[in-house]
User: What shape does this take?
Amino acid sequence: MVANRSPAMPSEIAEQLQLFALSSSAASPTDELETLCLEAIAALPEEAVAMRKGNRNVMNKLVGWVMKSSKGRADAKAVKEVLERIKSR
Assistant: This one.
């Protein structure tokens, strides 16, 4: 930002570069997080079944998959909350 001056606000630049974390405090994170979580469940069906049966350790693998697919932008705590919500459906 120092080398390449811009009239845009820093928050606008961060939004364009997708630097904001996907957490419960972003504009519409739950939709994007939920989509990523559903993709993780589809990609790892055995782990999803184990999670639904109560195996808490498997959730970390699903969270890791979401973190990887979001390139580290997803908030792990928010991902766990979304997975818990999906599990209880």
Observations:
- The radius of gyration is 16 Å.
- DSSP finds five helices and no strands in the chain.
- Residues 21-87 form a domain with the Arc Repressor Mutant, subunit A fold (CATH 1.10.10).
- Helices lie at 10-16, 29-43, 45-52, 57-69, 76-87.
